[in-house]
Design goal:
The structure is a single chain. The protein is of the alpha/beta class and 382 residues long. 28% of the residues lie in helices and 15% in strands. The protein is built from eleven helices and 13 strands. A hairpin with a 4-residue loop joins strand 4 and strand 5. It is elongated and about 75 Å long. It starts with a strand and ends in a 7-residue tail after the last helix. About 6% of the residues have low confidence.
């Protein structure tokens, strides 16, 4: 790639894109006689005018990266992007969390002078088709489809979630892109380098940690709620991603910042309500930031709140959630490059694998997103 790369990324492989798209293709793949259009596959055309002469239609820019070659969404050259990858074990709550983040961002934007919407009609339809409406009849434990080893083909991968963020006076719209990965993929230390390089080319990575595996939670809630054990160490997932980063980016390259996110935190809070248990003592005291949720209150990312919460959660993970190795990895990752978060997409534990009938009072779901948007310069620090 001879051209200068921008901070705008492909929404599929997360590769940085050149200032001017080099690869284009005709959206009409064949002629009337059934033969293939000369511009059916992405290619570089010197001096092209942006129009297919055979069909009289605009040529579509494509990602330059060889293993991707996806058609870029219309108008992609006019936006800036923050591309986030999400990894976690099976049943760690990725799918429900993505659904909740998309809906909460719409509310957060409305409360804070921003317009948040799906990037296009096509992306909205894709979102609606992918996510079953969360109601008492909806099962929560359908898993993310595994990624196929056959490359970034749309027919075998989940479409990324693309949310447009608009602000009066800002010359260019910003797009938040979210992609999640099936648990069994990140559990494999031999992840395919080309297919999963988007994990380390992202602007940030959200690592979801299921607290249902912790002994303190399981002992306190035994027989009271559904606990689906992943039987996997999230520190090993981080290690697999680190190995992938070394292979793709080089051992000395800067890694994407990491949001270590304890999902389904309602389980931890429920366990803390059981008297005379380790968690009831650890989480005693209303002054802990764990007991507060200011994520929708302000547009700014509250660094004071975030620092206190990060400290509380590191202690919780190391002492009570059986994750000392995760804390050690975060400490070695670099100052300010990893933060700990806690979220609950549902607010309360599900009943018989169904959403509780009284609704979904979420908890701190936007914290990791606001951190990454702050790093991108879209959200101020407070």
């Amino acid at each position: 790639m001879s051209q200068q790369l921008t901070d705008r990324r492909c929404p599929y492989c997360f590769a940085a894109l050149p200032a001017k798209h080099e690869l284009v293709a005709c959206p009409v793949k064949s002629k009337g006689d059934g033969s293939e259009c000369a511009l059916a596959t992405p290619q570089s055309i010197a001096g092209e005018k942006g129009i297919c002469e055979e069909h009289g239609v605009a040529l579509v820019p494509h990602c330059w990266y060889e293993s991707c070659r996806q058609a870029l969404p219309p108008g992609w050259h006019e936006v800036t992007t923050t591309c986030l990858a999400m990894a976690g074990t099976r049943n760690s709550g990725k799918t429900v969390y993505v659904w909740m983040v998309a809906n909460l961002l719409l509310t957060w934007g409305r409360l804070n002078g921003l317009t948040v919407s799906h990037y296009s009609t096509e992306s909205r339809i894709s979102f609606e088709q992918r996510f079953t409406r969360l109601d008492p009849s909806a099962s929560l434990y359908g898993s993310t489809a595994p990624e196929s080893p056959g490359g970034f083909r749309r027919q075998v991968q989940q479409e990324p979630i693309m949310l447009r963020i608009q602000e009066a006076g800002r010359s260019r719209d910003h797009v938040l892109v979210l992609r999640d990965v099936a648990g069994e993929n990140v559990q494999d230390a031999a992840m395919d380098r080309e297919h999963f390089r988007f994990l380390v080319q992202a602007d940030g990575l959200i690592l979801l940690v299921d607290p249902g595996d912790a002994r303190a939670v399981r002992n306190a809630l035994d027989g009271q709620v559904d606990l689906h054990s992943a039987g996997f160490n999230p520190a090993a997932v981080w290690g697999n991603v680190e190995s992938l980063a070394g292979s793709v980016l080089g051992n000395g390259a800067r890694r994407p910042p990491m949001a270590v996110t304890i999902s389904k935190f309602d389980l931890v809070l429920a366990a803390s309500q059981v008297p005379e248990t380790p968690l009831s003592e650890a989480l005693a005291g209303h002054g802990l930031r764990i007991h507060h949720d200011p994520s929708l209150d302000h547009r700014a990312y509250d660094l004071g709140d975030a620092d206190l919460l990060d400290c509380e959660l590191r202690t919780l993970c190391a002492r009570y959630l059986d994750q000392p190795q995760l804390v050690e990895r975060a400490q070695a990752f670099g100052e300010g490059r990893a933060r700990f978060f806690a979220i609950s997409s549902l607010g309360t534990p599900p009943v018989a694998q169904r959403v509780a009938r009284h609704g979904t009072p979420s908890y701190r779901c936007l914290d990791p997103i606001k951190w990454f948007l702050m790093l991108a310069g879209l959200v101020p620090a407070a």
